[in-house]
Design goal:
Elements: H1 3-21, H2 24-34, H3 37-58, H4 62-66, H5 70-93, H6 97-107, H7 110-121, H8 130-143, H9 153-162, H10 164-188, H11 196-213, H12 222-249, H13 252-258, H14 262-274, H15 280-299, H16 304-311
Helix pairs in contact: 1-12, 1-13, 2-3, 2-5, 2-12, 2-14, 3-5, 3-11, 3-12, 5-6, 5-10, 5-11, 6-8, 6-10, 6-14, 7-10, 7-13, 8-15, 10-12, 13-15
Length: 313
């Protein structure tokens, strides 16, 4: 397969990852309510990570993964593990299903932050209109925590004061994943294969250790088992593996820009699955994030994604 066609295929894999991710928040919240966020993250990541590592070993590709550049293995791995821990805790510690959706929207600032970090890390060039796009995304994140019939700065401040931890964790998660998406391309953009299975397994082990340190009460039902299987196979393993290929060997600018539709997809899926009636502010917040994405993507200088990839050797 020629290089240009392979790059298009890798980019398409990133788009598939975006679609799969849209189910993650709903499944994570539902499982957190029955078995706990640490238990959910530990089991989903350990099971999928171990299965993927066994697959790599059977194909003789596990040792090459361990020989990838150390900055990628250590640096990107640390960002990956910390991101997953933050997002599971943010969703699980949310005081209600509505707040879980709100923190999900805040987490989806990461597409804009991916492009922000790409400027200094990958030398991506942008036009002046890029920064208003980022501001639109931030405005959407600020609008999300407002409650129904409480649309004021005082109400926003009160909500943040009463339930600050989930929002803070979601914001940290957005920063970490935006940074991960850019530095992974720089540190291992031209290397064959990836270390996502290793990262997923490490995440599961870290969350398992936290689960032992902070015990949770888990109630297992047939639905919880089915949800665990789904979250382990699709959002936990498949989506992250596809995204890793896309950001390292696809069109990072295009994939990061298209990922702005994730808040709309995720919010819609979560609202239906969790049976939450959403106010206009959450849909408006999604709209601002998507509008910011469009403006950011239109403001990236054409061709700089390719040059960024060359400079990341």
């Amino acid at each position: 397969m020629d290089t240009a066609r392979q790059r298009r295929v890798n980019t398409a894999l990133g788009i598939v990852a975006i679609v799969i991710w849209s189910s993650m928040m709903a499944l994570a919240r539902s499982l957190s309510e029955t078995v706990g966020p640490l238990t959910t993250g530990a089991l989903a990541n350990t099971a999928s990570g171990a299965a993927a590592c066994l697959y790599l070993a059977a194909r003789g590709r596990l040792l090459p993964a361990l020989r990838l550049p150390r900055p990628y293995l250590v640096g990107s791995g640390l960002l990956f593990v910390t991101y997953i821990a933050c997002i599971y805790l943010a969703v699980g510690l949310a005081s209600s299903r509505q707040q879980a959706i709100e923190v999900g929207i805040i987490n989806y600032l990461w597409p804009a932050l991916t492009l922000v970090f790409a400027i200094p890390i990958l030398h991506t060039r942008v036009r002046a209109a890029f920064w208003p796009g980022v501001i639109l995304g931030l405005a959407g994140a600020a609008l999300a925590p407002l409650r129904l019939e409480e649309y004021s700065l005082d109400a926003l401040a009160a909500n943040l004061r009463d339930h600050p931890v989930p929002y803070l964790l979601a914001l940290v998660a957005a920063i970490l994943w935006g940074l991960y998406s850019s530095v992974s391309r720089r540190w291992a953009g031209k290397a064959e294969g990836g270390a996502v299975p290793l990262f997923v397994l490490a995440t599961g082990l870290v969350l398992a250790a936290l689960r032992l340190a902070f015990p949770e009460e888990s109630v297992w039902t047939p639905r919880a088992v089915a949800e665990l299987v789904l979250i382990a196979l699709f959002p936990t393993l498949l989506a992250y593996a596809l995204w890793d290929v896309a950001v390292r060997r696809g069109n990072l600018t295009l994939v990061a820009s298209l990922s702005y539709v994730t808040p709309l997809l995720s919010t819609a899926v979560s609202a239906v699955y969790l049976r939450v009636a959403l106010g206009w502010n959450l849909w408006a917040a999604c709209g601002l994030v998507v509008a910011g994405a469009f403006l950011c993507s239109r403001s990236v200088v054409k061709g700089c994604d390719a040059s960024a990839g060359r400079s990341s050797k």
